[in-house]
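Table S2 (text version). Query chain:
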Amino acid sequence: MGVLPTHGESTEPWMGIHPRITKIRRSERQMKKDLMDILACPVCKGTLQLAVTKEDDREIIEGTLTCEACIETYPIEDTIPNLLPPALRD
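Corresponding structure-token output:
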């Protein structure tokens, strides 16, 4: 069983890992180009390249993230990037 956080502690595991992650995770729930600064391939930690197929003035609605190193692809659907490793996707 996990330990419940005490008052003032975060229940979000990424908090405190990187200063920008905290700020982005709280305020930005959709896929935005600014996220490319901190995203990496979950399989090999390689650099991801963004290919946009649909966007508006604020966010990416559909597209693909492709790892330069292992060539794995991650879809972006309805503004949400699916960064689950391939074996864990539906």
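Notes on Table S2: The CA atoms of residues 29 and 58 lie 12 Å apart. The helical segments are 19-27.
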